[in-house]
């Protein structure tokens, strides 16, 4: 299946449009962490992005592409946090209203960010159907334009600009990994990666408890995920028809990652890169740990999608001391075995 819904040229146009409104985020690496993961790994640090996540790219592209008369009525979305905050920030920069439907139980740090950028928050039940229904009612009532978190061509093109920034920043990688929930980031990443580095393998990484994308790609038909269960709250969305078509066209495979591997990946990035990432950003790192994806001498580009995490509820802080010690020892043992 080939999809021309979003193209490399769209990503290039998005990069020009959003340049005044987003950060050009750094690329980091760590010798010790690369050894742990089996090869040279570069990390594109979208946790340093405006509003703390890659979502600012897609939100700014969509908001600043709107016709002024339409934009004046405001923008709306449903989001567990990062896209909501990004959209609220983009709307504030353009001087228009923003409305964000958020599920009950959303991380407090993300709720505070959405409110802090001036959006009106509408609460709903923590299911995808409830979010969609509340957003539809909101759009009908206010006349605002719905900017979907991922099922929107301008959003997907904006997300691809993170990888576009790497065109002259790193040597061609053998492997490109991005997390996948609804598929917007993975779609944009894959479009650019396949253009820049045609010999690279492009992988999506997904929590095992929210594996609709992996099942969809394996079976060739979009699968549902009514009750996702994962610490990676930003990856609980389902693929749309649009993102599924793009992923089928540009992504080689999607691997699933266990919850312990997600936590381990998060911890290793904190430890070796000395930066804060959230569980969703750690999923590709967990994939490298769990599946040993890098062949000897291989290199990988990992998109670290965001850093909005509740510092009072870190996933390793409540584990028993014995479990923490065992977790720390396990990767070291693997590293020794490889040597």
List keywords for this structure.
single chain, 339 residues, alpha/beta, Rossmann fold, 2 domains, 6-stranded mixed beta sheet, 4-stranded parallel beta sheet, disordered C terminus
Describe the structure.
- With 339 residues, the chain is α/β, with parallel strands linked by helices.
- It folds into two domains: 8-54 and 156-338, 3-Layer(aba) Sandwich (Rossmann fold), CATH 3.40.50; 55-146, Rossmann fold.
- Helix 6 (108-116) links the parallel strand 4 and strand 5.
- The protein has 14 helices and ten strands.
- The protein is globular, with a radius of gyration of 19 Å.
- Helix content is 47%, strand content 14%.
Topology, pairings included?
Elements: H1 8-18, E1 27-28, H2 31-37, E2 40-45, H3 55-65, H4 68-71, E3 75-78, H5 82-94, E4 98-103, H6 108-116, E5 120-124, H7 128-142, E6 145-146, H8 153-164, E7 175-179, H9 184-196, E8 201-207, H10 212-219, H11 241-250, E9 253-257, H12 259-273, H13 279-291, E10 299-304, H14 321-338
Helix pairs in contact: 1-3, 1-8, 3-5, 3-8, 5-6, 8-9, 9-11, 12-13
Counted up, domains total: 2
Q: State the helical fraction.
A: 40-55%
CATH class of the largest domain: Alpha Beta
- Shape type: globular
| Rg | 19 Å
Which stretches are low in confidence, meaning pLDDT under 50 for 5 or more residues running? 320-325, 327-339
Q: Output the strand order for the largest sheet.
A: 1-2-10-7-8-9
Tally of helical segments: 14
What's the oligomerization state? single chain
State the major sheet. 6 strands, mixed
Question: What structural class do the secondary elements suggest?
Answer: alpha/beta
What percentage of amino acids are in beta strands? Answer: 5-15%
Q: How far is the first residue's CA from the last residue's CA?
A: 42 Å
In the CATH hierarchy, what is the architecture of the largest domain at level 2? 3-Layer(aba) Sandwich
Give the overall pLDDT as a whole number: 91
